[in-house]
Specification:
CATH class of the largest domain: Alpha Beta
CATH topology of the largest domain: TIM Barrel
Oligomer: single chain
Structural class: alpha/beta
Strand order of the largest sheet: 3-2-7-18-19-20-21
Bound molecules: zinc ion
């Protein structure tokens, strides 16, 4: 038996002071003054929030192919320390995760690491080539729900239409787009604007995102039938308005935003520090403020990290040749509730049950209630800490929040009744 004692529970039914008693994999009681009896293991939650474990819709675990940057095990540890109980692993691995065999392999590595559930997303097109569809039906039968060529958009409109038509027939499947018009961002390194011009670098205009989202929504309307479409890492205000209208029209569309797009702008790139290189790029203040508002009011459904580790020697190249991407799993909560100023209850929803719903993970993001699986996060909203890149569990160091002092830290994480983090220390 495990007793989480002295915290405030926050879930879909609001906030209340309550202890949580767990037996085996399940919650057996929630209420004030619980006592597990002799032999119970107590996790102290005094001053802390107890909520459903977080679910990341967008993690790059880099295995297979880039194990020098991250492995399923190191990424899982970073996830558990960030309060996550489930990660959706992006398929832009080497080779691309586009087969049932590789999906099973990645999932198996996750089970071996034993720190979070790893749910592989699969590529939309074979080899992420953008040329022909992968076997989406077979991948769906193997349990895949999220399909994406993330890293690239699916540029060919006819192929995107085919993907949507097929996904419509696969229950729970969602087509997730890295929405940047490939032709408009070719050779671009950062947001197109005064900063890109001052650095003399080719930019990636925000319009590239708007064009792809607008085209895809037109295809979603054409295909019809409740097909599910998701915008990965939205970065511009125009996307918010397109999705707001699509939702008002009853389309089954969703969108995510990253902590970095809620807090950093392209002004961070003015010193050409490759730590701030990411795709889609950091934008301007107006976009950032529109994203915060949309996350608060629910037009943006979820926060996803786009955790993208790169080994220190590759990320230290000059801006134009450094790879895009930033770490995110261990800092997401603190950045969202601190600098991004998202209210606590809304932040928890966007980190747990909203992404669980989008990814079809019915065992995560559940209410903290008797009978439910114990997939839980316990965090101290008032604990301040410095982001020290050398002390992160990730194998890489490329956080854009290096040496920021942030507030809010995960104290314990519980996966199916088993603590994966106790007192800020991973248990494997
Ligand atoms: Zn992407």
């Amino acid at each position: 038996m495990l007793l989480i004692r002295g915290g405030d529970v926050i879930d879909q039914s609001g906030r209340r002071r309550a202890d949580v008693l767990i037996d085996g994999e399940r919650i057996v009681a929630v209420g004030p003054g619980l006592d597990g009896g002799a032999g119970v293991t107590v996790l102290d939650a005094t001053g802390a929030v107890v909520c459903p474990g977080f679910v990341d819709l967008h993690t790059h675990l880099r295995q297979p192919g880039q194990e020098e940057a991250e492995t399923v095990e190191t990424g899982s540890r970073a996830g558990a320390l960030g309060g996550y109980t489930a990660l959706v692993a992006m398929p832009n691995t080497t080779p691309a995760t586009d087969s049932v065999e590789l999906v099973r392999q990645v999932r198996h590595w996750g089970v071996e690491a034993g720190l979070v559930e790893v749910h592989p997303a699969a590529a939309i097109t074979a080899g992420r080539s953008g040329e022909r569809l992968a076997d989406l039906a077979a991948l769906h039968a193997a349990g895949v729900r999220v399909f994406t060529d993330d890293g690239n958009e699916v540029a060919d409109a006819a192929l995107m239409r085919q993907a949507l038509e097929l996904a419509r027939t696969l229950p729970g499947a969602v087509v997730a787009q890295h929405a940047e018009c490939a032709a408009l961002v070719a050779d671009g390194h950062l947001n197109e604007g005064p900063v890109s011009r001052s650095l003399g670098l080719v930019g990636r205009p925000g319009t590239a995102e708007e064009i792809t989202v607008a085209r895809d929504l037109a295809l979603v309307r054409l295909v019809g039938g409740g097909v599910r479409y998701h915008v990965l890492h939205a970065s511009v205000a125009a996307t918010v308005e397109l999705i707001r209208r699509a939702k008002a029209d009853g389309l089954t569309v969703s969108m995510e935003v990253t902590p970095q797009h809620l807090t950093l702008t392209d002004a961070c790139c003015s010193g050409a520090d490759p730590a701030f290189k990411v795709n889609p790029p950091l934008r301007g203040d107006d976009d950032l403020l529109a994203l915060r508002d949309a996350l608060r009011d629910g037009v943006i459904d979820a926060v996803a990290t786009d955790h993208a580790p790169h080994a220190p020697d590759t990320k230290a190249r000059p801006f134009a040749s450094a790879p895009p991407g930033m770490l995110g799993l261990e800092t997401a909560l603190a950045v969202v509730v601190g600098p991004a100023a998202i209210p606590l209850e809304r932040a928890i929803a966007a980190l747990s049950w909203e992404p669980a719903r989008i990814a079809g993970l019915g065992e995560h993001g559940r209410p903290v209630a008797a009978g439910e699986l114990a997939n839980l996060c316990v965090f101290d909203p008032n604990r301040s800490w410095e982001v020290d890149p050398d002390r992160l569990a990730s194998k890489s160091r490329n956080t854009p929040f290096a040496h920021w002092t942030v507030t809010g830290k995960v104290r314990h994480t519980v996966l199916r009744g088993r603590p994966t983090v106790i007192d800020e220390v991973a248990q494997r």
